[in-house]
Description:
Keywords: Dioxygenase, Iron, Metal-binding, Oxidoreductase, Vitamin C. The chain is α+β, with helices and mostly antiparallel strands. The chain has one domain: q2cbj1_9rhob like domain (Jelly Rolls).
Amino acid sequence: MTTLSLPLHWDMDKIIHSLDEYGFSIIPNVYDDLYFDALNRECLSQLDHFREAGIQNGVISKIRSDHILWINDTESLAQTHLSTLNLFSEILNQTFFLGIKDVEAHFACYHEGEFYALHRDNPQQKNHRIISTVFYLHRTWHQNLGGQLRLQDKQMNWHIIEPTPNSLVVFDSNLLHEVLISKANRLSITAWLRNDHTLW
């Protein structure tokens, strides 16, 4: 039986300091190439099942235009990523006493011209999202392709974060942020660490 643990190269001291000081942290080269490639293929194999996130209850939203697929037990490789986030949650709970109990996540694809306008993931404390995470799942990317995460930190400074493949952005769900217009298929797993239990 294999015991799952956080990747050894994660600099937890740096991650915790950045979260405490600025409300966000960027973790590069999250997984080994073998797992990353397999996870990328799992995501691509499901693209036909993605739905337009900008349509809710038949109403077209002007705030976002990406496409998503909620992750369940059938996506076994994505579940490994969620297990990693659960272990990461234990460290965050021990450090910041956040009371995180569960993870919810979906694959996301921003096709050319798609975006997500300025918002918070936990507006006015109306849901149970405590920490937001974005793991970039496309194989290659460069600055001219757009799709950057624009985020305001705890000190009210703005940052432009490149969607670098195999990197993970972790941030306080109360922070303002947006996804700038993408010019190519931008793939990710977006996940939220919650202080309640999800329904699935």
